[in-house]
Amino acid sequence: MPEHHASQYKDKEKPTQIRDSNIVAAKAVADAIRTSLGPKGMDKMIQSPNGDVTITNDGATILKQMQVMHPAAKMFVELSKSQDIEAGDGTTSVVVIAGSLLDASAKLLSKGIHPTTISESFQKASAKAVEILEGMSVPVDLSNREALIQSATTSLSSKVVSQYSNLLAPIAVDAVLKVIDPAKSDNVDLRDIKVIQKLGGTMEDIELVEGVVFTQKLASIGIHKIEKAKIGLIQFCLSPPKTDMENQVVVSDYAQMDRVLREERQYILNLVKQIKKAGCNVLLIQKSILRDAVNDLALHFLAKMKIMVVKDVEREDIEFVCKSLGSRPIASIDHFLPEHLATAELVEEVAAGTGKIVKVTGATNAGRTVSILVRGSNKLVIEEAERSLHDALCVIRCLVKRKALIAGGGAPEIEISHRLMEFARTLTGMEGYCFRAFAEALEVIPYTLAENAGLSPISVVTELRNRHAQGEKSAGINVRKGCITNILDENVVQPLLVSTSCIELASECVRSIMKIDDIVSMTFGYNLVIKVVRL
After folding, report:
1. Residues 311, 350, 239, CA angle at the centre, nearest 5°?
2. Does the CA dihedral 410-416-417-418 come out positive or negative?
């Protein structure tokens, strides 16, 4: 055989090896989080390099904290992140589906089907699957609070805090409904819902506050409650000014020393008098980096004038506080005028666990914002509760974006699989093979749900196929009873957007991986550039 022919055949092996390597790496990521899918899924304990421990079964959190080196595996991490941004829930499902589609692709490649054919067929199959899902969906009205609570409960059922879903779900629904106009809104800005963590108490102490909650202690002494509050939010410091540059002032005489202290006292007193003159009786002070935002002398004067002080308000919280209270931040004392103050019915300090919190409620010009105070016995529980609550809020946001629900419990995946199989029979050539492989790959969700629940996956999936073939569209796996039932009767529902987004994003990611036939490292080129520059 001539040599140039031999080299041609040798080159053909490389893209196959690269594809196999990508598929193995990405599937390893999918298999790592497959066990945490569904209500009976296991949790993962993740230890960071600095010793912090996180316990979670949220796919996006697990993948974000995993140290993934392979570029194809990193694509799966990004895939989970995309699902988290788009839908907020289904972050584990999307990776499991993508892993299964890759497995199906590997089998098709081994049959000699070209990657581009697989890629294009998967795109068509994905569009057909979304069409089937839309046909299955049930429209939902945002005024139907019960349906919203059911979908939030389904999202929470697979979390560590699932036993508190009857508390968390209504809070998530009420929070979203308070920050939107149900008649007009088609999206929710989750920045309007502030989740505050406070150690102490139990999960049952979680509460929804229509107003602002500060975890900082009151800086003022002796004032714990103010009714009919006039609130000012300042971004300047109530402490003696410093010189712009590092320099020293040498005081040689005690009379000069006395004068410096007197001037300082007078300067702070004037500031405090001006604040009092505007009618302010609650002062919020932004955290300062360069010098003390407020010193002891200023606090003494403010306490004498019966002004409550909350200091060290974080810079990123300013926008939320202003929107909640209907006020404006005041950057200098000259602008401290009555029209820039917010009014509220009540500002009070409340005991919470070992510490205290400050609640501001009944703001007159309040914006559409709420605060959720999450309590728990330890840091791990509180953090997981916040993540679970975020997922539940995202589920309600999905329903605001697309007002439609579908059944959960693996029912939609089996229905798509069944309908795509039927559709594949009408196709000819390679496309029919690819559609059939796509349909079979989607069975991984009910298979994994059954496996994690300790049921026999093969018999469960076979029974599901049988039920769906008889026309029972809502037949799904009832994990609690360990059998197959009409999942809508069990109130296991999820937003349409979560499932459509899962399938679209997973097939997109798999198509990208299929199209890759080589991995080029950039280090050599970088070194070359350095050498050229040096020459």
Report:
1. 15
2. positive
Strand partners, 226: 347
Structure tokens at 505: 């994003």
CA dihedral 165, 167, 172, 178 (to 10 degrees): 160
Q: How confident is the model at residue 219 (pLDDT cuts 50, 70, 90)?
A: confident
Catalytic (active site) residue 205: no
Structure tokens at 169: 């779900």
The number of CA neighbours under 13 Å toward the Cβ of 283 is 35
> How would DSSP label each residue in 423-440?
HHHT--THHHHHHHHHHH
Q: Which of 58, 84, 89, 192 is catalytic?
A: 58
| Catalytic residue of the set 89, 174, 391, 448 | 391
Give the pLDDT score at 184. 81
| DSSP state at residue 100 | H
82-86, Cβ contacts within 8 angstroms, sequence gap of 24 or more: 82/505, 83/59, 83/501, 83/502, 83/505, 84/60, 84/394, 86/497, 86/501, 86/505
Buried b (16+ CB within 10 A) or exposed e, 173-199: bbbbbebbeeeebeebebebbbbbebb
Averaged pLDDT of the chain: 87
Max intra-chain CA distance, the chain: 105
pLDDT of residue 531: 43
> For residue 143, which phi and psi values (nearest 5 degrees)?
-80, -10
Active site (annotated) includes residue 103: no
Residue 56 among the catalytic residues: no
Which entry of 54, 61, 91, 153 is annotated as an active-site residue? 91
Phi, psi dihedrals of residue 15, rounded to the nearest 5°: -55, -35
Choosing from 61, 92, 369, 500, the catalytic residue is: 92
CB atoms within 10 A of CB 419: 20
Active-site residue, 117 included: no
Task: Give the E-state strand segments of 51-136 in sequence order.
Answer: 53-56
Q: What's the confidence (pLDDT) of residue 535?
A: 43
Coil, helix or strand at residue 232: strand
Per-residue pLDDT tens digits for 444-489: 999 999 999 888 999 999 999 999 999 888 899 988 888 898 988 8
Among 450, 360, 408, smallest CA distance to 136 is for 408
Q: How many CA atoms lie within 13 A of 79 on its CB side?
A: 31
Helix (H, G, I), strand (E, B) or coil at 120: helix
Look up the pTM and report it: 0.83
Contact 231, 341 (CB under 8 A): yes
Nearest to 409 by CA among 492, 469, 491, 481: 492
